[in-house]
Amino acid sequence: MASEAFDLVVIGAGPGGYVAAIRAAQLGMKVACVEKRPTPGGTCLNVGCIPSKALLQSSHVLEETAHDLKAHGILVGDVKLDLAQMMKRKDDVVGATTKGVAFLFKKNKVTAITGTARIDAPGKVAVLGDDGAVAQTLEARNILIASGSEVTPLPGVTIDEKTIVSSTGALELQAVPQRMVVIGAGIIGLELGSVWRRLGSEVTMVEFLDRIAPGVDNDVTRQLQRALEKQGLKFKLGRKVTSAVQGKDGIVVSHEPAQGGAAEQLTVDVVLVCIGRRPYVEGLGLDKVGVKLTDRGRIAVDAHFQTSVPGIYAIGDVIDGPMLAHKASEDGIACVETLAGQKGHVDWDKVPSVVYTQPEVAWVGKTEEQLKAAGVAYKVGKYPFTADPRSRANNRTDGFVKVLSDKATDTVLGVHIIGAEAGTMIAEAVLAMEYSASAEDIGRVCHAHPTVSEALKEAALAAWDKPIHL
Ligand code: FAD
Ligand code: NAI
């Protein structure tokens, strides 16, 4: 079998792999990208970020039309759901987005190969077809693993993607379940729980910890939980699910206190399991070539994304750091720029996170709890959207902006936003922190009026000295 030679073979065409492949080609490398799904885009474009945001948007429009228009003096008749059309629109959005990646591969002369990649030796990749036989072999000066992550299974709860679903099945339900249990009140649970609650399900979230959304600043979490409860989501905190079995009237979900104790049951139509994701390394042949994993099962890399084997690199969800699409892409760019002799670097502490509930939650940098734990002296500037004129005009006054800055130097250490447009607003805070801005710097920047971003300026002024409008 003839073997084709490349400067770089990328394994996985998710936001880590496809972006790395395009950037490497732009830098003059001959690049192949091997992907086992029929379409590029990885988890994010096919079954993650994009379809979930399409359904979040559609369900938000439904909710707004049914409940929020009256406040604007707009009266509508009976609002009905056409779930099949909503799902078709979601599929169309995914289709257009994955086609876009295929187009970019062509445009940048990346060779896209469909199949499962296995590393046989440094510099040698075998591509397996559906039958498991080697269909093609590739010679590679460098190999980049961007194989992503998969759903963490929960013992006692067997996912069938019909009634006991992971996020993938929850994006494909053909009917609105009357009753739904979400196991895990993390990011997927809050987003997809919101989607199905808006579409009419009675959603109960069972969470192991005594709080929702671990990792988010406590102030924000408290307000988010109140807002979501007002919308009708129910939370059972400090509890763990021990089993989910098909009963006469539905699936019987048993849950008990996290530390053990008397079990209770809930009978529902659909169970969504979302207790986290784990790195995906199956079938890559890592053992054979000697690529080492961390004790958490992620591929261990050095500061330049090189694994324990020279010439084999790894990025994205399969290595340490936040499991986010934009982080995977930045890893990919930094990795291939370093390969091309440039200086690639990603600061994972400045990767923003967004939860696309309503209100949205977005943050970058340290939480107040982290600063306390580290013994850092800090200042807090907080500004509520109720004080922001554009938010009032928009009828979206839930939430606040919180700026945390160093008490001695005023350098911004963290920004936490809960509000209708938090996800868009956080970009400014990331930029500021990338350039080591002080709270005063943000407070002195001219912000357009009336825009919700003025709330960040005011929160920064509050951290530095005094806000004008509070
Ligand atoms: P992936 O996107 O997982 O891509 C890896 C690819 O490698 C896959 O397509 C896989 O098929 C392929 N692959 C694996 N092994 C092989 C092999 N041996 N040969 C060939 N191909 C292989 N992140 C955000 O930033 N924002 C969001 O809004 C967001 N929403 C999400 C919603 C959901 C429901 C889920 C599940 C995730 C969401 N994420 C979101 C997380 C995001 O999807 C991941 O962080 C991101 O996809 C990671 O990119 P990656 O390139 O590392 O891996
Ligand atoms: P997660 O880590 O965000 O949340 C999992 C939750 O499940 C945690 O609160 C945890 O305490 C809880 N849990 C764990 N075991 C449990 C048990 N036995 N019973 C009850 N609760 C239990 O994981 P999630 O929501 O599955 O998402 C995976 C990852 O996907 C995220 O961490 C994020 O990296 C990515 N993602 C990002 C999105 C975004 O950026 N908007 C959207 C969706 C996913």
Automatic annotation (TrEMBL):
Gene3D superfamilies: 3.30.390.30, FAD/NAD(P)-binding domain
Family matches, as PROSITE patterns: PYRIDINE_REDOX_1
Binding-site list for NAD(+): 184-191, 207, 276
Name by which UniProt lists this protein: Dihydrolipoyl dehydrogenase
Domain Pyridine nucleotide-disulphide oxidoreductase dimerisation per the UniProt entry, residue ranges: 351-460
Gene Ontology molecular function, alphabetical: dihydrolipoyl dehydrogenase (NADH) activity; flavin adenine dinucleotide binding
Cofactor note: Binds 1 FAD per subunit.
Residue ranges of domain FAD/NAD(P)-binding in the record: 6-332
Domain of life: Bacteria
